[in-house]
Amino acid sequence: MIPLHAYLHLRRLLLWRLLREIGWLRLALLVPALVSVLGRALVLAASHHYWVWAVPGFVASTLASAHRQRADIRFLATSAPAYRRWLAVEYGIWALPVAGVLVGFGDWGAAVLTLVLAAAVAALPPARESRSTRHRARSLFRSEAFEWVSGLRAGGLWAWPVLLAVAWWQRSTPLGPVLALVGWLLVLISSYGTPEPITMLVLAARTPRQFLGRRLVLGLGYAALTAAPLLWILGVGPAGAGAAVGVAVVWLGLLGLLILAKYAFYPNETHIRTTQGLVVSVALLMPMHPAYPVLLLVAVGGLIWQSQRRLRRVLGDGKLKVES
Length: 324
Hints:
- The longest helix is centred in the last third of the chain and has 29 residues.
- The protein is mainly alpha-helical.
- This is Integral membrane protein.
- Keywords: Membrane, Transmembrane, Transmembrane helix.
């Protein structure tokens, strides 16, 4: 049986390979933005008596989303009976920095709960084994909007009512509905971060502009419908209807950029997810510095051009030469 230290060494090698694939330029842009956004959110939550208890749940749900999509679970199960203990240690290591910040603020209970929930994620089954395809309920969304069909089955069906309940519970302050909208956007990112097979694009038989237009209409249409209750709670609260409309425009525009980022770097899932993370980070940093809105505006034009250029190779030639 492979020892624990050998497994952790293998995971470090895989992480190093992933970082090299992302590239140092993207990392130089992504890491500071993510650290700034997540660090600021963590500090704000840690200094609040109630919101600090949302941190363990957020960390656990993030790890659970990644854990249930892992492709090596079957291999680990057959090669090492104690693999779930390995996963528990690995997830605990990922949660250690967050727990350390909470301890620094004196939130020992939330810190311990963060580590416990992170380790407990290892007990969850893979997403593809959690339910037989014969027993899946018929989706409320068109099959063409496959990101919504698969994404909600993977966790969105329970995430949406939970976020709605949080927004209603904290309706007396704009922070509750806004955080619920951010949470719902993160759920959608996980759905739009995985590229579909190339045959699905080729069989669409549309020009790049028509294809992107259809993807944007479907994605933003369903997003507007699902976000409407959260925006209504924001509008009837202290923020007012005007603020709700502004948040809706920004929120939908950001989702549109995430859809464009998916096809701008298709089919490289690593580049897709890192670019989407960078877009979200820059958008959340916009109120902090006047340079960030300019960067986001430049990203809009770049993603529109790059996505059409990328799709032109797929839909025009019927095949794709993956660029390094």
